[in-house]
UniProtKB/TrEMBL annotation:
Official protein name in the record: Xylose isomerase-like TIM barrel domain-containing protein
Taxonomic lineage of the native organism: Bacteria, Bacillati, Actinomycetota, Actinomycetes, Mycobacteriales
Domain of life: Bacteria
One Pfam family cited in the UniProt record for this chain: AP_endonuc_2
InterPro entries, sorted: IolE/XylAMocC-like (IPR050312), Xyl_isomerase-like_sf (IPR036237), Xyl_isomerase-like_TIM-brl (IPR013022)
Length: 339
């Protein structure tokens, strides 16, 4: 059986401020405020761009390119679906940061935890209802960092904290929370997929194995991001080989090399800005992922799903999306039949 590729991109690909004629060094929170003030022109242009480059779908991004601003832009899920339909697009998936999940874990006492979990479930239910109306079945989220980063710029965290094995009780607690939101989403015909964020409790092979074994395979899936796994020093091929049958969405991006997590410091967006310097477009030539082996493993596992060609905050999104897809068509598509 050969792979049937459906290409999508995450809207974070269009988040570079320079793409919008803003200052290239504009802080992300300032960019976020610009979009939040009137998101519709931004969404119109991103959807137009995705259609122009020949994609079949889009993945909604974290704020300001997420489902809430999509709803604000067009007024209803049905209206948003109409905007997708008239451009020949579908929605592959929708990503939400695990802010509310972390709030549950950080709750200081039982009443606070119940309230935080209620907020998590309410948000998941609303998000899943939106996805159902749009015709999308995958709500992507992630877990928490495996250790604490240093908040002081230039001051590294202890390397041993990130090198230590994950706490099994914490992994079990997170699995319970994922099962909870998976059940909530399932009521709307949607499943949750855990994104393999670098340095999270879902980026290293052993942790992914633990979470997948402790969660319901019908309601909790996996969103395998090759670049994030490789950035954390992991093995994306091992994850694909074992878990791609449970992955309705794959992020096809590369990275230049392993970036030790303890070296990252400062606020979250400062760390993110450093991380994305290491990400590479599929087929860039200087990445570490073996894409031929990746593709063969997917073919061997009869993988079906969405392939997301994305690169965070690309300075030239149209060119880079096409570069990745062209590399697949030119260099990888023929390999599918030589296993």
């Amino acid at each position: 059986m050969s792979l049937t590729m459906r290409w999508s991109t995450d809207l974070v690909t269009y988040f570079a401020s320079s793409y919008w004629g803003m200052a290239p060094d504009l802080p992300h929170d300032a960019f976020e405020r610009e979009v939040d003030a009137d998101p519709k022109p931004f969404f119109d242009r991103m959807l137009d761009a995705a259609a122009e480059v020949g994609l079949s779908g889009i993945e909604l991004a974290p704020v300001p390119g997420g489902w809430v601003n999509a709803l604000r832009s067009y007024g209803s899920a049905a209206a948003f679906k109409s905007e997708l339909d008239r451009r020949g697009l579908q929605m592959s998936s929708s990503y939400v940061l695990p802010v509310l999940l972390k709030a549950v874990l950080d709750a200081p006492d039982a009443p606070a935890r119940r309230e935080a979990e209620r907020a998590l479930h309410d948000d998941t239910a609303a998000h899943a209802a939106f996805l159902r109306e749009v015709g999308c079945s995958t709500l992507v989220t992630s877990t928490i960092p495996r250790a604490e980063f240093s908040d002081v710029v230039g001051v590294p965290a202890p390397a041993a904290d990130f090198d230590a094995p994950a706490d099994s009780a914490l992994l079990a607690e997170i699995a319970d929370l994922l099962n909870g939101i998976g059940a909530v989403a399932a009521a709307e015909g949607v499943h949750v997929a855990v994104h393999t964020d670098a340095y999270s409790l879902a980026s290293r092979t052993a942790d992914i194995d633990s979470l997948m074994s402790a969660t319901d395979p019908d309601t909790v899936k996996l969103c395998i991001d090759a670049g994030h796994i490789a950035l954390d020093g992991g093995d994306p091929l091992a994850v694909v080989e074992k878990h791609s049958t449970r992955a309705p969405v794959l992020h096809w991006k590369d990275c230049a090399m392993h970036l030790p997590p303890h070296t990252l410091s400062g606020p979250p967006m400062a760390r993110h800005d450093e991380m994305i310097k290491y990400f590479r477009v599929l087929g860039s030539g200087d990445g570490v992922v073996d894409w031929r082996a990746w593709t063969k493993l997917l073919d061997r596992n009869d993988w079906e799903g969405w392939a997301v060609a994305e690169i965070d905050m690309s300075p030239d999104p149209q060119r880079e999306i096409l570069q990745g897809i062209d590399f697949f068509n030119r260099e990888l598509a023929g390999d599918r039949h030589r296993l």
